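Q: What does the predicted 3D structure of DNA recombination protein RmuC homolog look like?
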Amino acid sequence: MGDRLAEARLATEAALAAQRERLGTTEQVLADRLSEATRAMADALAAQGLAVANSSAAQNERLAAQEKVLAERLAASSLALTETLANALAAQNERLAAQEKALADRLAASQEALGAAVAAQNERLGRVLNENAVKAEETAGKIHERLAVIDAARANMEALGAQVGSLAQILGNKQSRGAFGEVQLRQIVEDRLPPDGFSWQHTLANRTRCDVLIRLPHPPGPIAVDSKFPLEAWLAARDAGDDGARIAATKRFAADVTRHVDDIAGKYICPGETAEGALLFVPSEAIYADLHAAHAPVVDRAARMGVYIVSPSTMWAVLGTMRALMQDVRIRAEAGQIKAQVAELVKDVGRLDDRVTKLRKHFVDIQTDVQQIEITTGKIARRGVAIEAVELSDTPVLSSSGGLLAPAAD
């Protein structure tokens, strides 16, 4: 058993030795191979490094060439951009200079215009100030004149105060009052109407006499005016001491006016001869206002009967309307004659136009003749100059036929 183990151990050791030998051989082979592989790899790496170095050099050369091209392009672009910017800047400077010059010219023109306007304004202001000074002096003179007029008016008022008493006496007397109203009416009528537009103290067909008849054409026809007015009751109402007396006088005044209106309507409104209305002239604005304020029914009744109550101011306006109506009637009456004269004027204008046309034609003929004469005189003048330019020799030249020939020209 021991021997077997020894043999086995020897066999095992021999196997291990053989194995170690094989391993040594294999290790040597592997070392050789590794060395060869290392040398091959080193050679490959060296070759690859050389290739990389060569490629890097070529790449660097290409990069350098591209960098040079880029630098050249950049320089060219910079130069072109610089030139473009310089040209644009020069053009901009030129435009700015032109605009500055135009602005300076405009500013100078504006300053000149402003100076002229200021001078003109100063001149106008001076003229206005002078005119205002003159007007102020004139106004002061007028004020002094008006003060003198006021002083005179004060004196006139004092004299008028003395005349008021006599006027009250006139108004207190019926006949004097009627004459006063008629005088006032006469002044207004003669001032507003033409002389042939009215008739004083005219007698109508019914043998009644009105103070004035205003000759209006039909329609509406002549209008009669009465200037007599019942004033006693109104004065009594104004001077009444108590309310009872005032009321009684007021009623009597309304009754007197109504009765007077009825008389005017019956006497001065004549169908076919006068208009369908008449005028009652009240010579006092105060009485007229009191009538319309306190006795409106009386005024309305008078209007319905065709009697219209007027005061000096309203009579003035009514007569103005009547005068316009008279003027319109006269214009219409003369319209036919005016139309005939206009027709004759149109004929005269037509004849004048024909004669002007003939005269214009005559002038054209004369102008044509003058032009023809100028043409002829021009030709004669030119031929005279040509004749003067010809120099004749002393000996005439004979032709072969024995006739005279003109001397030869030089």
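A (community wiki): The structure tokens above were generated from the sequence. The chain has three domains: 81-172, 174-333, 342-382. The radius of gyration is 69 Å.
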